[in-house]
Specification:
The chain is an all-alpha fold. The protein is elongated, with a radius of gyration of 23 Å. 6% of the residues are buried. 47% of the residues lie in helices and 0% in strands.
């Protein structure tokens, strides 16, 4: 703001706009004070990769580990579009196994059982 080549609004206009926006938001909140509960949904590929990076300090390639996310209205993080199918769940579990091996520092380590 503003578009290229156009002057910036002066301070009183900014203040007027802010007041108008706050009033409209307050009016909408008063009309419907309980917005309901957000839908629980799974993480999309980017969110999953970011969570792994933030929690484990491991950079992963979400695009190679996980399938393409469904898109709704141009967004891939809308809860209603992020369904969980058995195949998708298996891909997430496979990614988690791979990431778990990366987290312990031995990516080639496989699970094993030993009887004593």
């Amino acid at each position: 703001m503003p578009p290229p080549g156009r002057p910036r609004p002066d301070a009183p206009r900014y203040s007027s706009l802010i007041t108008q926006l706050e009033s409209e938001l307050d009016r909408a909140a008063a009309a419907k004070p309980d917005p309901g509960r957000p839908a629980i949904h799974r993480l999309n590929r980017a969110e999953y990769a970011n969570a792994i990076r933030d929690l484990l300090a491991i950079e992963i390639d979400g695009q190679s580990l996980l399938p393409v996310d469904e898109v709704d209205q141009g967004f891939d993080n809308i809860g209603d579009a992020l369904s969980v199918t058995p195949v998708l769940l298996e891909r997430y579990m496979s990614a988690a196994r791979t990431i778990g091996r990366m987290a312990i520092g031995e990516p080639e380590t496989r699970p094993f059982a030993e009887k004593i």
